[in-house]
Design goal:
Keywords: Signal. The protein is mainly beta and 283 residues long. It is built from four helices and 15 strands. Strand 11 and strand 12 form a beta hairpin.
Length: 283
């Protein structure tokens, strides 16, 4: 399948694109019923981010490809086994006509010191339709990299991509069909809507390009959460010889809130990332 969620383009910023590029939570919506939230929502979602690395896989990849190590290779010296590395906080506002999601990923003390206190800042603004969120503008800044912007020209069904400012000429353009999501909206698509019963394919932008993401509905779970268990439904992406990165996500059965996502990056990065919701927000 074509979900290259963590097919990172350069080694120079692979850490932020792996540690912080993980919020493609649930790109599944063509099977959603025509519903909109009955009441306005303004709430905060806070997640713990943990990473497990296998330095031997990364070293073997570098040796095989003759690729130069990136400036962020120190993460493999800091992380031993599984380690909490960051907190991600999403502020989600939506009503029957519009939404706004702002997000900040903050490295914990040890990682922040090693990597110069860099953060991930993201923002998504758009409208609500009978089928869910429709991205209008998506912005992302990973650490000390350039601000990236994706802006939709809805009548033309195209997205313009910018660096630093949309007042400058776009650095790229891509067409899309259906409705467009982004790396923030995909996780909150099902609040107030039904979870899809079948696998679906959807166009999603990360501020650089548009890729088709596919997830498959899996089994229900008695999910451990906050000292107890709640009902949840698992979704996962398929893998192939050319794309062996894995992705799983659990949505609460009641309110369809993303509880956990687990991303197994390819041997190129030798890492597994887990994102856990810290507490259930009030909707």
């Amino acid at each position: 399948m074509n979900m290259h969620l963590f097919n990172l383009s350069t080694a120079g910023n692979f850490l932020f694109r792996s540690l912080f590029g993980l919020l493609a939570l649930g790109a599944l919506s063509s099977a959603i019923g025509a519903q909109t939230p009955s009441t306005a929502i303004n709430t905060q979602f806070e997640y713990d981010l943990k990473v497990t690395v296998d330095a031997s896989k990364r070293s073997a990849y570098l040796a095989r490809t003759k690729e130069e190590p990136s400036p962020y290779e120190s993460v493999y010296k800091i992380v031993s086994g599984s380690m909490a590395v960051a907190t991600v906080v999403d502020q989600v506002k939506m009503d029957s006509t519009k939404y706004h999601i702002s997000s900040k990923g903050t490295l914990l003390a040890g990682m922040s010191t090693a990597l110069g206190g860099q953060n991930l800042i993201r923002d998504s603004v758009g409208s609500m339709s009978a089928t869910g969120m429709l991205t209008n503008t998506y912005q992302e800044k990973r650490g000390n990299t350039d601000l990236l912007l994706a802006k939709v020209e809805a009548p033309k069904n195209i997205v313009n991509f910018y660096k630093v400012s949309s007042r400058t000429p776009p650095v790229g353009t891509a067409p899309y069909t259906g409705r467009l999501l982004d790396m923030l909206t995909v996780g909150y698509q099902f609040i107030g809507r039904e979870l899809p019963m079948k696998s679906v394919v959807l166009p999603v932008t990360d501020g650089r390009s548009i890729k088709n993401y596919t997830l498959v509905r899996g089994e229900p779970w008695d999910f451990p959460f906050d000292g107890g268990k709640i009902k949840a439904v698992r979704y996962y992406k398929t893998t192939s010889k050319d794309d062996n990165a894995t992705f799983e996500i659990w949505f609460s059965e009641k309110d369809h809130i993303p509880l956990r996502s687990v991303i197994g990056l390819s041997d190129q990065y030798g890492a597994t990332i887990k994102l856990d919701l810290k507490k259930m927000p009030k909707l």
